[in-house]
Write a structure and sequence with these properties.
Lysine N-acyltransferase MbtK, 8 strands, single chain, acyltransferase activity, GNAT_dom, antibiotic resistance, alpha+beta, Aminopeptidase
């Protein structure tokens, strides 16, 4: 999926993670000071490889590298909520999807890029015709990301004690998203 975002002047694109191609890059990103507190995946490389292999084998999610003008700079996990631990915390509906993300290199921080990236990944999720809601559960301490999700159209639902963090469960409704971002991206629903 390639989208030109006029607000930031970059083309945003996503491709699925490939183990050998992306292992060292993702390992490095998970060791960044701004990532460690929220992801807690700063494992040694052999352990990180096993972890990434497990994530890639998990059929309820798809992992992506996000690019700006073809430069890799972010990591996303898009998952089916009903098959995820989050389904224990709300009445997940068939088609609900969730997202996790991080911006890797420091050079991309503080430039207003998180909102366009979240917006583009949310638009990608809504291309699935059966998806009426995208969810997120950012760490309750991550006020910057909570603010970004709110600006994108996510609404806070409740705090949840997940196995790895205390998160804020947030929902983004398809109709609200399309109303808010009409004309920014064209979303053509499919069954993919």
């Amino acid at each position: 999926m390639n989208l030109f975002d006029e607000q930031i002047g970059y083309e945003i694109s996503f491709r699925e993670v490939e183990l050998e191609k992306d292992l060292e890059k993702l390992h490095q990103w998970h060791h960044q000071d701004h990532v460690i507190p929220f992801w807690k995946q700063n494992f040694m490389l052999p352990d990180y490889k096993v972890h990434l292999q497990k994530l890639l084998a998990d059929q309820h999610q798809t992992l992506y590298i996000g690019h700006l003008d073809e430069e890799p700079m972010s990591y996303f996990e898009r998952y089916w909520a009903e098959d995820d631990v989050i389904a224990n915390y709300y009445d997940a509906e068939v088609g609900d999807q969730g997202i996790h993300l991080l911006i890797g290199p420091d050079a991309f921080l503080g430039k207003g890029l998180a909102l366009p990236l979240v917006r583009a990944m949310t638009a990608l999720g809504f291309q699935h015709a059966g998806t009426k809601k995208i969810i997120a559960e950012p760490d309750i301490r991550n006020k910057k990301m909570i603010h970004v999700f709110e600006k994108c159209g996510f609404k806070a639902v409740k705090e949840v004690d997940l196995p790895d963090k205390r998160g804020l469960l947030m929902f983004c409704d398809r109709e609200e998203f399309l109303r808010r971002w009409d004309g920014v991206y064209y979303i053509q629903p499919s069954d993919a």
